[in-house]
């Protein structure tokens, strides 16, 4: 009996000691923020706080559930890192528009892989708002993404689109299935590579596939990078770097490929009128008097981000929209009727037709509303601010759940339904009302000065690809309906990628002959 009592006492002492050390540890590492007018906070787990929510897949859904249960503005934490979760259009507007400058940097404390080209310190997307970001944005808009540059590269995209169309006709003839997302990745990757560096990545020597594989691998690393930027921040304090080896290995492969492309440009620079983005960036790099001194690694970092930002976004969006159209044959028919009445049946749709096809534009917008490629946006509070009547302290990480904003039943009628008609402006509603509603509640390309600079190009990629697939083909799938289950970490993808067999409706040769842009 005495032995049991001693053991019992030891056990109690051990538990007390354990609880005490945990308390000391958490007090030492994770100081609890003082609650001074902060937004409400749902119950959290000891020490890790709300980390489990951040790591759940897909996290935009758990965040959506959380905000509809509690509040559209919530205060969360992972360990001692404060996070504010925003889930309503009006609060997102206060952040991204009214206080744009204060929230124009993404997560400024996220650890970067110092020497990596991928997720590294050379990036434009992760760069804090400041001189470097402004300088690069200007180059980007002037030489690639602005209206003038988009017009200048129209022929390149026209050629790539023909290759895409020819592939679909070939598949139709052979009665083979098409993985829509994969084929779209080829189209966007090839187009962006040619727009940036003026030449095609060859399919023959495997260069194009190498780039696509790298893009896919980089996207799968994005989730690990998210973990690295939350848990990793604390581990880094004690000298542990998460996933460094994996990220550096991909970075090395990008480096080899890009070094080769840059050397080709240095040895054979394009003439003034044919300059591409790489020529322009190399000139700036060599110019002692440039407003900002950029490095070779920054050129490589930007190239990687443009590939990632431009190709998967458009590929996933196209896949979701095509799936919605297959599941809604009446909408597909209405869209086809519009294309046939404007473009006809004897030539293939091209990007100059898009402005004359309001229903196609509405279909694309509605697809982006329901299936935003990046359902979660992040920002950092450079200074403390009041949002929605609550205090947001300096350095708080902000998460904007655009998925929840664009499916908010208080702002959208039947928010989960695919109804492109909601984007056709009715005379009774008026253009101004519609504009205001959209600026508050429609965020597929984010917003404010860090909003997507490639939105016009994105609309083009998606619009013409959907146009061709609807105008020229019927689609057979396995089963009655496409499975719309979601997956993805920071991005939103189809859990079951769309595969369908195209059945040609119009004469491919006739359409190619008269499809010259
Ligand atoms: C359907 C296609 C696209 C979608 C849905 C999309 C979506 C987005 C979103 C949500 C953001 C974050 C915005 C924010 O934080 O407020 C973003 C940023 C960005 N996107 Fe896109 N994007 C698309 C196409 C493109 C294309 C074609 C390019 C260029 C080739 C591009 C380049 C970028 C860049 C460089 C940024 C970072 C901007 C900055 O940090 O200042 N995107 N995009």
TrEMBL record:
Gene Ontology CC annotation, any one: membrane
Cofactors that this protein relies on: heme
Keyword Transmembrane helix: yes
Binding site for heme: 452
GO MF annotation terms: heme binding; iron ion binding; oxidoreductase activity, acting on paired donors, with incorporation or reduction of molecular oxygen, NAD(P)H as one donor, and incorporation of one atom of oxygen
Domain of life: Eukaryota
Membrane protein topology class: Single-pass membrane protein
Coiled coil: 240-267
Pfam families, sorted: p450 (PF00067)
Alphabetized InterPro entries for the sequence: Cyt_P450, Cyt_P450_CS, Cyt_P450_E_grp-I, Cyt_P450_sf, Plant_metabolite_P450s
Subcellular location: Membrane
Family from the record: Belongs to the cytochrome P450 family.
Protein name in the entry: Cytochrome P450
